[in-house]
Amino acid sequence: MHTQTLQLNSSDHHQITATVFAPDQASRCCLVISHGMAEHGNRYATLANWLTGQGITVITYHHRGHGPDSAHPGHYADDQGWQSVVNDLHRVISQAKTLCPGQPVALLGHSMGSFIAQSYAQQHGEQIDTLILSATNRIHHSQLRLSLWLVSLIKALRGKRHPSKAIAKLTFGKFNRPFQPARTHCDWLSRDSQQVDRYLADPDCGFHCSVGLWQDFIRGMLSINPRQWRTDLPVHLFAGTDDPVGEMGRGIRQHFQAIREAGVQRVTLRLFDGGRHEMLNETNADAVWQHLLQCLPGDSQVQNPAEHPQADFTGRVSGLFGR
To answer: 253-266 burial, b if ≥16 CB within 10 A, otherwise e?
Structure first.
């Protein structure tokens, strides 16, 4: 395995820092990872190293306002922030196609990154061969519109670059309630205490995002419409049943159903019993990584649900925002 750091220029000349993890032998596909809010692409290095051992090239990168070199931490852009992050992803995927010519390209989006990935699939679905969504949620239009009104009010009072603790408290404050007594304020991320501690100790994680980013994010989510996606695009969703972002499984199940009802023909959902928000960093991460591998382009049961009628919903099920 070997790695390479790239500096890519987006359509507005914003510089994107990306890392390529490539196997020593020829790879069979390329996976691009779109990370979550208040984290960064480097957190996926361990997963990427493992995937290269399975013959997969992986590209991670930092969204605008994220990563160690961000000029404005927690802020996309002063104008057209959501479209800018989608354009950045388009630049990364274009690079993936250059590095891995003729190979299928899969896109994995986690939490906030899952919504960026969905916007990308809506605009450039022909550029990817598989869409994988980790810890996503339904598009709750009425709740999002109310949130947009509140965020717009705060923006008018404090400005678009203001890092809002109030919005963070309203959004993330409730996520730890199901896990009381909690060891930390981020116990909702994972049952693995070491992973939670690594997140808390990371200086490039857990920061407050700007009012402008929240406004862009909400507007971006409201623009997502699976009826505008490629109907033949394989879409795979996975999450934990105890992920508060996905409403403890309820929200992601509703989104899974909405995608199916939109006419997308190859949709799967896997819920991992007891898992929290970051399934890739959970106590059963080995099983989750194996599932992710099966979702990548190939001949697996998960990748080809049309050949396996029961594969459109797998896993155990019990019982708006997120990092």
So the answer is: bbbbebbbeeebeb
Residue at 145: amino acid letter: R
Angle of the 165-172 helix axis to the 141-158 helix axis, nearest 10? 160
User: Three-class SS of residue 30?
Assistant: strand
Q: Which of 131, 134, 201, 208 has the alpha carbon at shortest distance from 164? A: 208
The pTM assigned to this predicted structure is 0.93
Round to whole Å and give the CA distance between 65 and 70.
5
Q: Residue 87 has which token pair?
A: 């354009």
**What single-letter amino acid sits at 238?**
F
Q: Are 129 and 297 in contact (CB under 8 A)?
A: yes
Each domain of the chain, given as residue ranges in start order, spans: 2-315
**Distance between CA atoms of 76 and 85, rounded to whole angstroms?**
7
Query: What distance in Å separates the CA atoms of residue 208 and residue 75, rounded to the nearest whole number?
Result: 9
**Quick one: DSSP state of residue 138?**
-
pLDDT tens digits for 290-315?
A: 999 999 997 455 655 443 333 344 44
Give CATH for domain 2-315: 3.40.50.1820
> No. of H helices and E strands in the chain?
9, 9
Q: Are 137 and 37 in contact (CB under 8 A)?
A: no
- What tens digit of pLDDT does each residue of 56-78 get? 999 999 999 999 999 899 999 99
3-class SS of residue 109: strand
Q: Check if the beta carbon of residue 298 is closer than 8 Å to that of residue 236.
A: no
Residue 144's closest CA among 323, 320, 322? 320
Give Cα 72 distance to the centre of its chain: 21
Residues 6 or more apart whose Cβ sits within 8 Å of residue 13: none
